[in-house]
Amino acid sequence: MKIQILKGDITKIETEAIVNAANSSLLGGGGVDGAIHRAGGIAILDDCMKIRSRQGKCEVGEAVITTAGNLPSNYVIHTVGPVWNGGTKGEPEKLHACYVNSLKLAEEHNIKSLAFPNISTGIYGYPKDLAAKVAWEAVNGYHSEIIEKVIFVCFDDENYHLYSSLK
Ligand code: APR
Fold first, then answer.
1. Structural domains in the chain?
2. Cα of 140 from ligand 1 centre, angstroms
3. Shortest CA distance to 161 belongs to which of 6, 2, 1, 19?
4. pLDDT tens by residue, 62-96
Protein backbone atom coordinates (compact mmCIF):
# COMPACT_ATOMS: atom_id res chain seq x y z
CA MET A 1 0.00 0.00 0.00
CA LYS A 2 1.25 3.42 -1.02
CA ILE A 3 0.74 6.00 1.75
CA GLN A 4 0.37 9.69 0.94
CA ILE A 5 -0.03 12.74 3.17
CA LEU A 6 -1.99 15.70 1.83
CA LYS A 7 -3.18 18.97 3.32
CA GLY A 8 -6.70 19.87 2.29
CA ASP A 9 -10.41 19.17 2.30
CA ILE A 10 -11.28 15.47 2.26
CA THR A 11 -14.56 16.18 0.41
CA LYS A 12 -12.49 17.08 -2.64
CA ILE A 13 -10.36 13.90 -2.66
CA GLU A 14 -10.98 11.49 -5.54
CA THR A 15 -10.16 8.17 -3.87
CA GLU A 16 -12.73 5.38 -4.21
CA ALA A 17 -13.69 5.91 -0.56
CA ILE A 18 -13.22 8.60 2.04
CA VAL A 19 -13.47 7.97 5.76
CA ASN A 20 -15.70 10.10 7.95
CA ALA A 21 -15.04 10.87 11.63
CA ALA A 22 -18.65 10.28 12.61
CA ASN A 23 -20.48 9.89 15.90
CA SER A 24 -22.40 6.86 17.10
CA SER A 25 -25.75 8.26 15.95
CA LEU A 26 -24.55 8.37 12.31
CA LEU A 27 -26.86 11.36 11.85
CA GLY A 28 -24.15 13.89 11.03
CA GLY A 29 -22.52 16.59 13.12
CA GLY A 30 -19.91 19.32 12.83
CA GLY A 31 -16.29 19.07 11.70
CA VAL A 32 -15.47 16.69 8.88
CA ASP A 33 -18.79 14.86 9.50
CA GLY A 34 -20.69 18.04 8.72
CA ALA A 35 -18.53 18.80 5.69
CA ILE A 36 -19.05 15.31 4.22
CA HIS A 37 -22.81 15.35 4.73
CA ARG A 38 -23.08 18.88 3.31
CA ALA A 39 -21.02 18.08 0.23
CA GLY A 40 -22.37 14.56 -0.28
CA GLY A 41 -26.01 15.38 0.19
CA ILE A 42 -29.05 13.60 1.55
CA ALA A 43 -28.21 10.23 -0.03
CA ILE A 44 -25.51 9.71 2.60
CA LEU A 45 -27.92 10.40 5.47
CA ASP A 46 -30.52 8.11 3.87
CA ASP A 47 -28.00 5.27 3.83
CA CYS A 48 -26.99 6.05 7.43
CA MET A 49 -30.63 5.90 8.52
CA LYS A 50 -31.02 2.49 6.83
CA ILE A 51 -27.95 1.24 8.70
CA ARG A 52 -29.36 2.65 11.94
CA SER A 53 -32.65 0.82 11.49
CA ARG A 54 -30.79 -2.40 10.60
CA GLN A 55 -28.08 -2.49 13.26
CA GLY A 56 -28.67 0.48 15.59
CA LYS A 57 -25.88 2.90 16.49
CA CYS A 58 -22.26 2.55 15.36
CA GLU A 59 -20.02 1.70 18.32
CA VAL A 60 -16.73 3.52 18.96
CA GLY A 61 -14.00 1.86 16.88
CA GLU A 62 -16.50 0.30 14.48
CA ALA A 63 -17.08 1.31 10.83
CA VAL A 64 -20.01 1.26 8.39
CA ILE A 65 -20.15 2.09 4.68
CA THR A 66 -22.54 4.22 2.64
CA THR A 67 -22.80 5.85 -0.74
CA ALA A 68 -20.81 9.04 -1.21
CA GLY A 69 -23.72 10.85 -2.86
CA ASN A 70 -22.46 13.94 -4.73
CA LEU A 71 -18.85 13.53 -3.53
CA PRO A 72 -16.10 12.56 -6.03
CA SER A 73 -15.71 9.23 -4.18
CA ASN A 74 -17.95 6.19 -4.55
CA TYR A 75 -18.18 5.39 -0.85
CA VAL A 76 -18.00 6.99 2.59
CA ILE A 77 -16.77 4.76 5.40
CA HIS A 78 -18.09 6.18 8.67
CA THR A 79 -16.11 5.33 11.78
CA VAL A 80 -16.55 6.57 15.33
CA GLY A 81 -13.41 7.69 17.08
CA PRO A 82 -12.92 7.73 20.86
CA VAL A 83 -13.40 10.91 22.85
CA TRP A 84 -10.06 11.75 24.55
CA ASN A 85 -10.38 11.03 28.25
CA GLY A 86 -6.77 11.21 29.43
CA GLY A 87 -5.50 8.22 27.47
CA THR A 88 -6.03 5.47 30.04
CA LYS A 89 -9.58 4.49 29.05
CA GLY A 90 -8.69 2.47 25.97
CA GLU A 91 -8.59 5.49 23.63
CA PRO A 92 -5.46 4.34 21.73
CA GLU A 93 -6.92 0.87 21.14
CA LYS A 94 -10.26 2.30 20.01
CA LEU A 95 -8.60 4.78 17.65
CA HIS A 96 -6.42 1.99 16.24
CA ALA A 97 -9.60 -0.03 15.65
CA CYS A 98 -11.15 2.86 13.66
CA TYR A 99 -8.34 2.66 11.13
CA VAL A 100 -8.14 -1.15 10.98
CA ASN A 101 -11.92 -1.65 10.74
CA SER A 102 -12.15 1.01 8.01
CA LEU A 103 -9.39 -0.76 6.05
CA LYS A 104 -11.12 -4.13 6.53
CA LEU A 105 -14.44 -2.71 5.30
CA ALA A 106 -12.69 -1.21 2.28
CA GLU A 107 -11.22 -4.63 1.42
CA GLU A 108 -14.65 -6.26 1.77
CA HIS A 109 -15.90 -3.84 -0.90
CA ASN A 110 -12.85 -4.30 -3.11
CA ILE A 111 -11.93 -0.63 -2.62
CA LYS A 112 -8.39 0.08 -3.83
CA SER A 113 -7.92 3.64 -2.55
CA LEU A 114 -9.17 5.46 0.51
CA ALA A 115 -8.53 8.70 2.39
CA PHE A 116 -8.59 9.24 6.16
CA PRO A 117 -9.10 12.46 8.08
CA ASN A 118 -7.29 12.88 11.40
CA ILE A 119 -9.92 10.99 13.39
CA SER A 120 -10.75 12.20 16.93
CA THR A 121 -8.32 15.15 16.81
CA GLY A 122 -11.02 17.83 16.52
CA ILE A 123 -14.16 17.91 18.63
CA TYR A 124 -13.17 14.66 20.37
CA GLY A 125 -9.98 16.28 21.66
CA TYR A 126 -7.46 13.50 21.03
CA PRO A 127 -3.94 15.02 21.18
CA LYS A 128 -2.81 15.32 17.57
CA ASP A 129 0.71 13.96 18.12
CA LEU A 130 -0.56 10.84 19.88
CA ALA A 131 -3.36 10.29 17.34
CA ALA A 132 -0.95 10.66 14.42
CA LYS A 133 1.27 7.89 15.82
CA VAL A 134 -1.70 5.56 16.35
CA ALA A 135 -3.01 6.24 12.84
CA TRP A 136 0.40 5.83 11.25
CA GLU A 137 1.10 2.53 13.03
CA ALA A 138 -2.36 1.14 12.29
CA VAL A 139 -2.13 1.83 8.55
CA ASN A 140 1.54 0.90 8.16
CA GLY A 141 0.92 -2.31 10.05
CA TYR A 142 -1.96 -3.33 7.78
CA HIS A 143 -1.00 -5.55 4.84
CA SER A 144 -3.50 -5.79 2.04
CA GLU A 145 -3.59 -7.49 -1.37
CA ILE A 146 -6.50 -5.26 -2.37
CA ILE A 147 -5.86 -1.73 -1.10
CA GLU A 148 -3.24 0.06 -3.20
CA LYS A 149 -3.33 3.61 -1.83
CA VAL A 150 -4.14 5.29 1.48
CA ILE A 151 -4.12 9.07 1.84
CA PHE A 152 -3.99 10.89 5.18
CA VAL A 153 -5.81 14.17 4.53
CA CYS A 154 -4.75 16.79 7.07
CA PHE A 155 -6.95 19.86 7.43
CA ASP A 156 -4.51 21.90 9.51
CA ASP A 157 -0.77 22.57 9.42
CA GLU A 158 -0.10 20.95 12.79
CA ASN A 159 -1.48 17.58 11.67
CA TYR A 160 0.24 17.90 8.31
CA HIS A 161 3.65 18.43 9.94
CA LEU A 162 3.06 15.66 12.47
CA TYR A 163 2.21 13.10 9.77
CA SER A 164 5.02 14.30 7.53
CA SER A 165 7.51 13.78 10.37
CA LEU A 166 6.32 10.15 10.73
CA LYS A 167 6.83 9.26 7.06
N1 APR B 1 -11.47 17.69 5.46
C2 APR B 1 -10.51 17.03 6.18
N3 APR B 1 -10.41 17.12 7.52
C4 APR B 1 -11.29 17.93 8.16
C5 APR B 1 -12.32 18.64 7.48
C6 APR B 1 -12.38 18.49 6.07
N7 APR B 1 -13.31 19.11 5.33
N8 APR B 1 -13.04 19.35 8.40
C9 APR B 1 -12.47 19.09 9.59
N10 APR B 1 -11.42 18.25 9.46
C11 APR B 1 -10.49 17.73 10.46
C12 APR B 1 -10.40 18.49 11.77
O13 APR B 1 -9.57 19.63 11.62
C14 APR B 1 -9.75 17.42 12.63
O15 APR B 1 -8.35 17.41 12.43
O16 APR B 1 -10.95 16.46 10.85
C17 APR B 1 -10.32 16.11 12.08
C18 APR B 1 -11.36 15.46 12.97
O19 APR B 1 -12.09 16.49 13.64
P20 APR B 1 -13.68 16.41 13.82
O21 APR B 1 -14.33 16.54 12.51
O22 APR B 1 -14.03 17.39 14.89
O23 APR B 1 -13.93 14.91 14.31
P24 APR B 1 -13.64 14.24 15.74
O25 APR B 1 -12.62 14.97 16.53
O26 APR B 1 -13.41 12.79 15.40
O27 APR B 1 -15.03 14.41 16.48
C28 APR B 1 -16.13 13.70 15.97
O29 APR B 1 -17.44 15.67 15.77
O30 APR B 1 -18.39 16.44 13.87
C31 APR B 1 -18.63 15.74 15.00
O32 APR B 1 -20.38 14.22 14.40
C33 APR B 1 -19.01 14.32 14.74
O34 APR B 1 -19.65 13.92 16.99
C35 APR B 1 -18.65 13.68 16.04
C36 APR B 1 -17.37 14.42 16.43
1. 2-166 (3.40.220.10)
2. 22
3. 6
4. 999 999 999 999 999 999 999 999 999 999 999 99
Output the CA 3–ligand 1 centroid distance in Å: 21
Residues in Cβ contact with 74 at an 8 Å cutoff, skipping those fewer than 6 apart: 16, 17, 67, 68, 111
Please, which residues have CB within 8 angstroms of residue 161's CB and are 6 or more apart in sequence?
Answer: none
Neighbours of 54 (CB within 10 A): 8
Active-site residue, 33 included: yes
Who contacts 23 (Cβ-Cβ below 8 Å, separation ≥6)?
29, 33, 80
Residue 100 near residue 116 (C-beta atoms within 8 A): no
How many CA atoms, within 13 angstroms, populate the side-chain half-sphere of residue 161? 3
pTM: 0.98
Give CA–CA dist 103/138, Å, rounded: 10
